[in-house]
Amino acid sequence: MRFKNVVFDMDGTLIDTHDILVLSLREALKEIIPLRVFTDSELSAVIGIPGEDGLRKLGVKNPELALEKWNLHMKDYHHAIKIFDGIKTLLKSLKEKNIKLGIVTSKLKHECKSDFFHLGIAQYFDVIISADDTAKHKPFAEPLLKYMEIAGAERQDVLYIGDTIYDIECAAAAKAASGLAVWGCRSVKHIKADYYFRSPAEIIYYLEQKSDPLLEMPWLKWAMELRFIAQAGLYYSKNKFDIERFERISSIAVEMLALKTGIPTDQIKSLFCNEKGFQTPKIDTRAVIFNASNEILLVQETDEQGTWSLPGGWVDIDKSIAENTVKEALEESGLTVFPRRIISVQERNRHNRPVYAYSVCKIFIECDIIDGSFKENSETSRSAYFSFDCLPPLSEKRNTAEQLALCFKAHNDMHWNVIFD
Predict the structure, then answer these.
(1) Where does the Nudix hydrolase domain start and stop, copy by copy (predicted)?
(2) pLDDT at residue 260 tops 80
């Protein structure tokens, strides 16, 4: 996992309170400043920092009194406060992976007790920092630094997730990584986070994702870039001297790979230099098929000592994504399927090994069975259904346990949002 500590903001990140906060704030301000009308954007702009600070930003001369009235009006809406979909599952998964969890919130301690503790997820958190615990609050670094002090955490091991610019600025000030909870954010405009999470499920996805191998192997990145320049140059150039130069650049890329990998140059050329025209990623589709027992269909590959994978392969030049998924499922599993929805779109080298010297876009598509049965063929020797706890040896260049885990999650979530790199 990339981080040992994941710290959350509360309002708008863990619990859905934005509309309630704005509504109750508007009612409080009507009592304090009856002649002034505040817009939704003005009120939204102060959600995410301590209440008195927000009221001062709005020009309220007696923020203490206004905060009291705000809290009184909030009590009328406590029954409407709810946890965002997917949060409880996320917290449980993080704890199972021994990630230390924390909260850094602009709420006061008594507000946390009234608005949050009754929701049944407080037990997942090791440390909770409220507005009472530091002299300075978000967007300053102090609240997150206080968390690090109590938790014994190093900056590089902390990811702070929140839904406002104040949360992201707090993380930056504390020199920790930041993640924007897009599911609770009103607008991403001008918010520069390290990560953008469209749903809670994406947090686990990105924490488990392998680092970009091209950062670890710069020689491979250089070889791929040289080949890209050469291929584009050969496609567009008309001058014979330019063509000679681009051919030489292509040869240098092959020689670099041969030197670092020990693979013969002829073999590298057949894998690496067999395309013409502007270079684009290859596309690989994988058919994700479940049975009524919540087991996933895998086929045993004939080319890899009996390892297993989802039915799939390269997209043919004359096929659409859906058509290719149907074709591969039929050829490898004997099943006629209906491709129902996309689960994820991935950059292969960030998930699978070994690393390829070219880019591959992998698309995982959940399919429904129409009819059919397995027939042994040139690519697969048999098929079977597996639970996640009893997976067979996998063809990891095609699919990993993490990718199959994502398929199980999507299958069991009727409101699944597509995850893409």
Answers:
(1) 280-410
(2) yes
Give the tokens for residue 114.
């009234």
Closest CA to 375 of 404, 344, 340, 332: 332
Paired tokens of 237? 């150039």
Q: Which residue has the higher pLDDT, 406 or 274?
A: 406
For the segment 98-117, the average pLDDT, to the nearest whole number, is: 93
CA distance 327 to 371: 14
Strand 312-314 and strand 82-83: the pairing is unpaired
Q: Among the three residues 33, 58, 80, which one is the final residue of a domain in this structure?
A: 80
Backbone dihedral region for residue 303 (phi beyond 0: left; psi -120 to 50: alpha; all else: beta): alpha
The residues near 266 (Cβ < 8 Å, ≥ 6 apart) are none
Same domain flag for 195 and 247: no
Q: Is residue 228 one of the residues assigned to a domain?
A: yes
pLDDT greater than 80 at residue 275: no
Query: Is 222 a member of any domain?
Result: yes
**Average pLDDT across the chain, whole number:** 92
**pLDDT score at 1:** 67
Whether 277 maps to a domain, the answer reads no
In tens, the pLDDT along 159-218 reads 999 999 999 999 999 999 999 999 999 888 889 999 999 899 899 888 887 767 777 888
pTM recorded for the entire structure: 0.72
Number of domains the chain is built from: 4
In this predicted structure, which of 117-126, 202-211, 267-276, 350-359 has the lowest mean pLDDT? 267-276
First to last CA, the chain: 17
